[in-house]
Amino acid sequence: MHVLGIDAGTSSCKVGVFSPEGLVAAASRGYGAMSTRQGISELDAAGTWTRIEDAVREVLSNPAVPSREVRAISFSSMGEAAVPVRLDRTVVGPSILANDARGVEYAVRLDRDMPARDLYRISPNRAGPNFTFSKLMWIRDHDPDTYRAADKFLFWADFIAFMLGADPFASNSLANRSLLLDVRENRWSDVLLEWSGIDRDKLGDIVSGGDVVGAVRPDLARRLGLRDDVLLVAGGHDQVLNALGCGCIESGSAVVGMGTYESYCPIFSWPGDTEAFFAENMNIEHHVVPGLFASFLYHHSGYLVDWFRRTFAPNETLDDLNARLPDGPTRLLFLPHNEPPQWPEFIRHTSGVFVGLKSSTTLEEMYRAVLEGITFYLAQALTAMERTGVLPDVFLASGGGSRSDAWMQIRADITGKPFTRLGVGEGSLNGAAILAAVKAGLFPDNAAAAKAYVRRERTFVPDPDRHASYSRLAGVYRNVYPSLAGVLESLDQV
């Protein structure tokens, strides 16, 4: 038996067929965001679905894939964005992405109308224009034809399942990203729907990740060469699918995605008191593993490393720089504010800073300081977690940055925690495959599937002396932004 995983991002989708031993074949398609004017970021949803279907068709036609043996499909996708559809599976408009500027006024209105703590008790997030509610309100008020024509607005993973044959639904980990879900009760919030004026009937019924939501429709199964009884299994938000795909299936574990952005995603049971999470500006969202929840603490990462290389060493590769990395902590600090940080609070007027430059400072020391600065920033996330009572003791790292031995060791030394590098190509795709494989009967549970699909390559253990040095430097690092905040704000507004 085999299963299919689909992961849809903002600019491309990935599709993979998995056997009980792991990935057999994969395909991908790019589509990119459609922007017609400044501030617009949206996807041509109908065209994107065509590209996703093309990728599915390609991977199923691979000679290594016995398409008639595929028994289940599950899904991962970006958060926030939703697709307006009719019940006859017709797409009636574009999908507005999270970074689209439209809808800011509704986030401002929510922040004004509802105290942040009251909102947090329902949907443990801080109001912002990235969430789905603001886009739906904008469509209702500024594009009423699309709003009226749409029977449902479906999140992307759920939309793909719907187009394959499922009845319309909303997986709870994606519904979290709407800011309309009562997370504790796992249902749409009457209070937030009444405030927004969004019609409840425009939203799918809430299901949990891993629930069977239908089967591939017969006409599409014939076109794709599939059986007519292939199960469709609800997936969800790519962040928690990545956690599952990296083996984070127990409270006390955390996945560190080291890509263009870096995200710390701790996994935990529902906290008895959410006040500490509110104080630390940590969100709480459903995992796709029943009974577990996750938070996302993130910042620019690989983006800043690539900026440094392009700016200061354009003729060298990162491997070249890593090979010459100085041994041990530098006495140079880097504030990674080249782009406005968004956690623990959005800071608009700031800049990246090197502190401690000497005439003897080398390029290699500056490069190490960039790696250390990014890690210092995110080490604050661990401190915030600990203040909430979330104490991960297993850190699993994936993404391009995890391939650097030097950076993995820096992480262990700064945080004082062991970091384990995973041999996982696409964590979110892997997570979708795990959900499908369990429902197809390839494995009895998530733990057995993760054991088969997740390979742990190497664990980096902190050096006690370096950790002690970094702990002293961390105290200095924490004072860099507070000491320079006024200067950086003035400079940014000159």
Structural descriptors:
six-stranded mixed sheet; 494 residues; alpha+beta; 18 helices; eight-stranded mixed sheet; 24 strands; single chain
Provide an overview of this structure.
β2 (12-19) and β3 (22-30) form a beta hairpin. The chain is globular, with a radius of gyration of 23 Å. The mean pLDDT is 94. It is built from 18 helices and 24 strands. 39% of the residues lie in helices and 22% in strands. Strands 15, 16, 17, 18, 19, 22, 23 and 24 form an eight-stranded mixed sheet that branches. α14 (363-388) crosses α15 (405-415) and α16 (427-440) crosses α17 (446-453). The longest helix is centred in the last third of the chain and has 29 residues, at 464-492.
User: Quaternary status of these chains?
Assistant: single chain
Radius of gyration: 23 Å
DSSP strand (E) fraction? Answer: 15-25%
Largest sheet: 8 strands, mixed
Low-confidence stretches: none
User: What fraction, in percent, of the residue positions are helical?
Assistant: 25-40%
Helix tally equals 18
Overall SS class: alpha+beta
Query: How far is the first residue's CA from the last residue's CA?
Result: 63 Å
**Overall average pLDDT:** 94
The global form is globular
Counting DSSP E segments of at least 2 residues, the number of strands comes to 24
Write the layout of secondary structure elements.
Elements lengths: L1 E7 L3 E8 L2 E9 L11 E2 L1 H16 L9 E8 L4 E4 L9 E2 L7 H10 L2 H7 L9 H11 L1 H6 L2 E4 H9 L4 E3 H4 L5 E2 L4 E2 L1 H7 L8 E3 L4 E4 L2 H7 L6 E7 H8 L7 E6 L2 E9 L5 H5 L5 E2 L5 E3 L2 E4 L1 H11 L5 H6 L9 E3 L17 E3 L7 H26 L5 E5 L6 H11 L3 E4 L4 H14 L5 H8 L2 E5 L3 H29 L2
Parallel strand pairs: 1-5, 5-14, 9-12, 15-22, 22-23
Antiparallel strand pairs: 1-2, 2-3, 4-7, 6-8, 10-11, 13-14, 15-16, 16-18, 16-19, 17-18, 20-21, 23-24
